[in-house]
Amino acid sequence: MRKLLLVLMFVLTPVFCAQANAPYKILIVPGHDDESYGAIFNGVKEADMNVKLGLYLYNLLKKDKKFKVFITRDWQGYTKEFSDYFANNGDRINDFIENSKTSFQNKIVSGEIKKVDNNVYHNYASNKVAGILYGINLWANENNIDAVIHIHFNDYVRDKKWEIGDYKGFVIYMPYNQFKFAKESTDLAAYIFY
Prior knowledge:
single chain, alpha/beta, three-stranded parallel β-sheet, 6 helices, globular, disordered N terminus
């Protein structure tokens, strides 16, 4: 785990130098929360692991003056900045959701975006979870965030979920090349991977 963190620390700078002016704004999003905690094994919740790694990365990066770092959650839940944002901007977030869906559908119809069957399994997100994720995106857009790093510890589908699985490793998800910031995301993903 520690090697991955160090790799993240050292590879962010080259990607951002060509794209933005310092300090580079980074938003860390520890996935899930206390209501929707993701995977669980032997009483350990994914949401807690995500917060632990997120806070470690947050504290590591904020020591470097090249970065201005934000985080959506800590051990008490959503940080005040984000809980206030969700509470005070519900209508704006709902409008953003509807506009985003309409825009995306229009791009599919026009052929600007093509549907891709990538055989990647996606969990269903409740309306509340989707609202939080869209709210985070809207906040990031409004605050000119240079990079958003979502953290998850995922499990894979298998019959005996209560037993330790056979596989371990990591996955980096990034947008397809037809989406906004695909090149920058791919460059960052390549640095993290190697």
